[in-house]
TrEMBL record:
The keyword Membrane applies. InterPro entries: IVT-Associated (IPR052430), Memb_transporter_dom (IPR049453). It comes from the Eukaryota. This is Integral membrane bound transporter domain-containing protein.
Amino acid sequence: MEKHVALEVQAPSRGGLPQKLKKQEVEVVRAGFPWRPGPVDKLRAFMVSPLTQAALQLAAGRAAANPFVVCLFVFVRRISFSNSCLASIFYYAAMLLLSLDTTAGSRLLAAASVTGSLWVGVISAGAVVSLAHAPGMAYTTFLCVFSCLALIMLCALRASATLGALIANLSFGIALVTAQFSWPGHTLWYKVIVHFLEMGLVAGLATAFAGLFIVPTLARDELRDCVAQTISELGSSISGYASRVFVPSDDTASTRDSKEDSSLHSRKPYVSYRGSDGGNGLHPNAVVGTSAAAQDQKTAHKSGSIHMCAREEDQHDTDFRQFLRDASDPRGDHNPCHAESPWAPSASALRPQLLHARRLLSEAQAEPQFLSAYLMQLGDWAGVLDALSSLITKSAALESVLEGDEPLLQDRALRQLLGRDVLPIFRLLYAQLAASCAAIAKAIRSDKGSQRAGQYALLFGPSWGMLEFELAATLHAALKGYWQQYRATHPGDLYRPALQVRALLYVATLTNGIMESMAGLEHAVMVALSKQMTVFPLPHQRQPDQDVVARSSEARPEAPSDDGSEGGRTLDEIRLALDERSQSLATTSSSQSEAPRSPRLRTVSLKRLMAERPLQQRSSRALQRHAEDGALIPRSHTVPDGAPPAGWWPWLWLEVAWLLPLVGGLLAFPVLTTLRTLLTKRIPESLSSQDKLARNTWRNRYFLFGLKYWVGYCIVLCLSVALSANHPAVRAWRPQYAILTLVVVLSEKIDTTVTRGLLRLAATVLGGVFGFLVMLRPSVATNPYALTAIVCTFTCMCGFLTMTQFKYAVYLTLITSDALILCQYTVRPDSHGNPQYFYARVAMVSGGVVVVYLIDLVMPWYASSAALEQMGAAYAAATKLIQRDYEIFHDKLERVGRPCNPGDAEKAEAAENEGLEQAEKDILHNCIAKPLSAVQASLAREAVLWKHGILAMPKTVHDMLRCMLVLLDRLAALELMLQQKPIVSGRYSAAPYQYLVEPIDKRLRTVLADVVELGEAVQQLLNADKAQPALLELVDDKIKQLERDRMLLRLKYLETQRTLHGACEATYLHDRTPDDGVRFLSTFFALSRAIDKATLVARTVLEDEWMRQRSTWRLLLGIRP
């Protein structure tokens, strides 16, 4: 028993009022909390960990292969030959190189891939040997010539960076050296080539056995867990974003505490959870508790602060210049402040988990359906991943308002500006979004395949249409109150922070898009989980008893409209509620003092709307349109109670569909498809013009690597063939190991090649010494059972490192030890290992490493140079994308003012949106996102041994990658702003183009031209062949020029704003709508943030010391400082 002091807390009393509990000493019993795992718990967790699973699968698969290989190729004389031990090379390649996970689907795909790729190389080797015997003379010469010709195709495949091509090259060289002296043709094909195919089949069967029977896990189960975990963490991220963006001010918290006792029962909730209007409704200020880190409002007005009002911008140019420099400072923190918190991860950090889920989805397609305890339609789960990707992208866009040390949106400032509180509704909406993520994750984890669609319709489906309407109504009243307060207040005394206005409308537009994506995610999860009984499909039919959830790309609810047009919600009660809200706003706004009290404005009565109108009528028009078209929750692949099955063909197809990817791997479809692409597309395209020929040959790094790879392979292979033919003693030194070293070690980048070479030498010594010691005792060297136990034990010990970055070293160690043990096994009594075999292995591997180093020193290419060049090209594409996005935005605003038929306008809008989505896919994903993902993957696997020195990855690469990922998020946010719909009034007018965009268009296009020129200059600077000190000065000049043009743009923008506010009573502005300001200001905010981050990337490159040294001391051969 220990005494503890209870802190002062608030607890509700029986009457519902809060009651203060005094500090008092209480007796508590020690309960052993927090719980800590003991040794038994740690051992139990280790035994079920992925490391143990990988080790057992590797050892058990080897145990399955060892007796089979040894007995088959030793006791059956017809198929016995000296290289039977080489099956372990392909087995370990399948388990460690081709298999990315420990799931059954990954093992099956690796087994099929290694078998299919192996027959490509082996059959090519058999064909070359047969053709070399055809002339009847100069066999060795023709063998070398035909081998070099065949290697042109194989080396071109190897340069395409496919693992299957590596297996094909490896099998070609080993089979060619082995079959060199096998003739006639019957002996060649039936005693060498067929045996190699059998070894590949044995390796594939052992891999499949390890994945299916040794601690098996299904990719579809891990897919569900990964999706559920990602959605759960996304909910935490959304909650963390809301806690940082919508921090309650100190005055808001104190006002709420002082009024809580008297107004707890008297006031109605702002909006009720799921339409409930009872006393237990969620109060908006209770969504996010009072933060101890809330900043005082006065700190927002300091000189140089990130929150500057328009009047300060007019008087102090230095403040805006400092603001631009702070926004693009490489030494600043441009990530969310809560990103490092484990309970609230950044949404951007969830993208690797999403990629992992997509890989699991592809692996699950190769798993048999009968292995799973319940049915999963993998095509439906692809829709879940697409919806989740959309939600992650839109949630990550919230990071634009998280920059800086102070909250950008504050209650007091917005209340003074708009005359009312607008942040409580955002707190409520994001609380609902976080709760929905938790509900979805729980449903995915608990689903066992027996629920019906209606059960998920009851679980999900919150009134997103009503929440979207409430958000639109709040914005409608807020924007109306802004102009009412502006008319009632002298412009000289008006507090008007332009940055806060843009940020608020940006967040409002983004919130609407996030809710649409959440509705789409819920719909996709319901479709994926609502599978029952059997798999026979039914025709699409309407089911009015089920709830309706719109897809994310189409469910765009339309907000209240000022006019009675068909495009918005024109319910009489909604219009009356909006009018009452606006009148109440005008009354409270005109009477508020310097320290106004938060007015409690009347909101739309959700209870009355829900009671008077059914669900189908109170949903948004997008949802109603889906309901009218019959696009309800699908019940395909289900059979109603008592209904006969639809036929046996769909069931049979679903049961055998998993064989398709395996058959494709066995037939080497990936390798053959790559070869077909080279012959039919890339080569004809390169020959179409001299510029393309130069760009795809000696200017292409991968072509140069393929050329060096081909030259080195030809040299090693021809030397092995010639020396083996003229000097029979060379055959005893196993020249195929030199070929194996070249194929495995040589890489595109020199630092990776050096790493692999050292790992190859170390693994050869370690595995060779182990194998040499095992084969010293004759009693062990001639006992297959003892050898099997020793090999499996050593394999299991090394298997614990297969899930680490030393997977490659483990592979090299295991193939070396198996070569020395299995290749020296014999049934002769009193025989033991030959030391010469160990010496030969070390000599051939060392010679191969030396040859590889000499080859790769010619025109070397560093991993850092490759990463910087990729990011430079992505940065140039990003700057051009910013310019293109503004041109699309300008054309959209200009088209609104053109006189045309409504139908033509809708068609033009639809075509433009389709073009925008296609451009987003082509540029944002293919030209920016994919190169950055490739750089991330390269940093994860390249140069793992080098932390310091010339081969270490410079800090510049990591810094630029971090900034490029931030820029990618800002570009995605800009794309989302361009796709927004009128959420407040339901329509746009021509006013923004005439009075906002057209006056600043010339200045803005100048700024965007500077951004594009900056992108081209940075790309040239990051290119290792063009890096010069003059380019550093060019980049510096471009940054300064961009800053000067942005200053001029700001002055023009402020002049336009003053003109517009001065003419707010003019008749020509009466046709404008609230959505005009929402679209222009939110897009302008996203555009400014994108330009800031583009400048951030350029300054990161410019101010890096390593970049200055490389530009100054770069030598002719590309040797870096």
